[in-house]
Amino acid sequence: MPTITDSTLDDCITVPYNMQRTFHVWEGEKQMSRYYSGGRARHYNRRWRRYTEKTLAVAIAMIDFAALHRVPEELGRPPRLLDVACGTGILLRHLLECVPGMEAYGVDASADMLAQAQEALMDQPHVRLEQREVNGTGLPYPSRTFDLITCTNVLHDIRDPVGFLSDMRRLLAPGGQLVVEDFARRRPALLWAVFEWLARRIEEGPVRAYTLAEAQALCVQAGLHVVNGKAFPIDWFWHGWALRAG
Ligand SMILES: C[S@@+](CC[C@H](N)C(=O)[O-])C[C@H]1O[C@@H](n2cnc3c(N)ncnc32)[C@H](O)[C@@H]1O
Known about the structure:
Layout: H1 6-9, E1 12-16, E2 22-26, H2 38-42, H3 44-47, H4 49-61, H5 65-75, E3 80-84, H6 90-98, E4 103-108, H7 111-120, E5 127-131, E6 146-152, H8 161-171, E7 172-183, H9 189-203, H10 212-221, E8 226-233, E9 239-245
Parallel strand pairs: 3-4, 3-6, 4-5, 6-7
Antiparallel strand pairs: 1-2, 7-9, 8-9
The protein binds S-adenosylmethionine (SAM).
């Protein structure tokens, strides 16, 4: 697969999967996500299956697939996808099945989640997986690169959401789509504050959930144009939102 980050290729450790396929796991940044490691990563798909099915279905429904299918004819190259905090690779896999031939990139802070993704994507021709912590400081891809950027179930973990979303805007190709989905902050406020306090202690990181309106406002602050937004229930406890911006 021709890569868009040849300058960073030397920094990659190439993990051969078999003779035809390679994955690249970038290990330049050693800030590992401790929460999504070990058994939590290995059992993530089983433990969060219903939640994942529901939330990713809503995120996928936000995507303008017709626009992606037009990219080869209009731009003379395959569509390019970046899944930020790709976790175990479920969304990448689904999107590659929907748009065969797409160049797919996945970044995540957790090596153990990426190991699951590597396994899930082993039959895909070429996928580039990179271990990176994303916190608004900028991903090392050229500007105006990706036709689709997805970011599901992680905005609550990102320290500088406006910085992060601004960088996503920089990375979007002209006409590109950013699809963001996450769980929503709920009421009563005091109980939710207790939940977030506990979650921060368990995850040892920032946990800050947004409502759909807040997420849309963050996008606007980042210079994005919000095309579509939807709030939805996941189960009795979790509620979610998803939006598409460009
Ligand atoms: C709840 S999982 C969601 C995975 C996937 N996006 C999905 O929707 O199934 C959160 C993922 O975000 C990753 N993550 C959390 N904070 C991150 C950060 N600052 N930079 C990169 N990845 C991060 C974790 O390692 C984990 O794989």
